[in-house]
Write a structure and sequence with these properties.
The protein is built from twelve helices and 13 strands. The protein is of the alpha/beta class. The protein folds into two domains: about 120 residues, Aspartate Aminotransferase, domain 1 (Alpha-Beta Complex); about 220 residues, Type I PLP-dependent aspartate aminotransferase-like (Major domain) (Aspartate Aminotransferase, domain 2). Strands 2-8-7-6-5-3-4 form a seven-stranded mixed beta sheet, sandwiched between helices. Strands 9-10-13-12 form a four-stranded antiparallel beta sheet, with helices on one face. The longest helix is centred in the C-terminal third of the chain and has 22 residues. It is globular and about 60 Å long. The N and C termini lie far apart (about 45 Å). Bound molecules: pyridoxal-5'-phosphate. The site of pyridoxal-5'-phosphate has 14 residues, from helix 4. Its EC number is 4.4.1.13. Its cofactor is pyridoxal 5'-phosphate.
Length: about 375
């Protein structure tokens, strides 16, 4: 069985620790596990070539992406559909810039803060769909609103951050149907696509009937293999017209691909499936421990289908839960950042001992007294 290696972070070189140097980091969405050895070796070999000239994107990188999309999502894609981008968010911004610099953009809330604030910096009117109580995206009323609003773009986050929901086929097909007669483009940020903890399979937007030629799907090995600092992602765009416009816009506004990112991506996608399975086992176990612990507290938590982010309801707990945790040495994210005050987001992608420190703190501070 592949072993996961814990890492020790330093405040000088990791955002996770720099923001709250005195606290154990459970806020930013990266992991306290080392990147798989196969990726480290591939990157080391590339470094030893001794230069970082402008990279060419080798055929093998496209092949590795095709291989991954087929294996992970049962999605057969053509090489031509793939556009390498510097990172997921730059890909989302290029998608907006190239397809709909004006008009209305539909977004879900709560949402990853960089998506929630996406309309800033563009001449776009945001239209926010509140996720319903059970958290599912696209209720009938949302779909009706789409038809009435005629948005230039619908930006999906699937699986959702912070709520960890995986969109199902019916939801995505209903979405496709609702924009059938509109010029709306679906821009789907699927950065968390590989961190699936429940039974559902991830379905990329571009694989859905009716969305193939109306979508830009953004994927990345960044969350899956702890590569955020190396910065690499890709867009899958089956429609040639949308793709050409995207490429033209990227050349102008967001060019610059990391040579090491390409090497890391290829190695991850060809060599690290077993490592991912080991990671998912650990995350499922951590999620269970967290759930069991929080049942004994005033904090409300329902384990999610995806991501290593726990979305926790603190509204029935007295005082500022974020502050209390920080004072006790546990740094989480404040739900306000994602559009939901009264909630916190807790990253459980960490080794057992760190999780135990956090769960003991939860119990010390918030244990239910019967
Ligand atoms: C949904 C989502 N998209 C994008 C990102 C950032 O990805 P990248 O670093 O590749 O831009 C994050 C990071 O947390 C995220 O949660």
């Amino acid at each position: 069985m592949t072993e996961l290696r814990p890492i020790t972070r330093q405040a000088e070189n990791t955002l996770a620790l720099a923001k709250y140097p005195e606290a154990q980091p459970h806020w930013v969405a990266d992991m306290a596990f080392a990147t798989p050895d196969a990726i480290i070796s591939a990157v080391r070999k590339r470094i030893e070539e001794g230069h970082f000239s402008y990279p060419n994107i080798p055929y093998s990188v496209y092949e590795s992406i095709q291989h991954w999309c087929k294996n992970q999502y049962d999605w057969s894609i053509q090489k031509e559909w793939i556009v390498i981008v510097p990172n997921t968010i730059s890909g989302v911004r290029t998608a907006i810039k190239s397809t709909c610099p004006q008009g209305t953009v539909m977004l879900q809330s709560p949402n990853y803060n960089k998506l929630l604030n996406l309309s800033k910096g563009f001449h776009l009117t945001p239209y926010t769909i509140e996720l319903t109580d059970n958290g599912r995206p696209f209720t009938l009323s949302d779909l009706r609103h789409i038809k009435q609003t005629n948005p230039s773009a619908i930006v999906l986050c699937n699986p959702t951050n912070p709520t960890g929901i995986v969109s199902i086929q019916e939801e995505l097909e209903s979405l496709a149907l609702s924009i059938k007669n509109l010029d709306t483009i679906v821009i789907s940020d699927e950065a968390h696509a590989d961190i699936i903890l429940g039974q559902r399979r991830h379905l990329p937007a571009g694989s859905i009937k009716g969305l193939e030629n109306k979508s830009i799907t953004l994927l990345s090995p960044s969350k899956t293999f702890n590569l955020a600092g190396i910065s690499i992602a890709y867009a899958v765009i089956p429609c040639p017209k949308i793709r050409d416009k995207f490429k033209e816009t990227q050349t102008f506004y967001a060019s610059g691909i990391n040579a090491l990112g390409l090497v890391a991506l290829e190695s991850a996608y060809f060599n690290c499936s077993d490592w991912l399975q080991a990671l998912l086992q650990q995350l499922k176990s951590n999620q269970k421990v967290l759930h069991t612990t929080l049942r004994h507290t005033s904090l409300k938590y329902k384990p999610s289908e995806a991501t290593y982010l726990a979305w926790i309801d603190t509204r029935e707990t007295d005082g500022d839960v974020f502050d209390k945790l920080l004072q006790a040495g546990i740094a989480v994210s404040n739900g306000e950042e994602f559009g939901s005050p009264g909630w916190i987001r807790f990253n459980f992608a960490c080794p057992q001992d760190q999780l135990t420190t956090a769960t003991c703190t939860f119990l010390d501070l918030f244990r239910n007294i019967k």
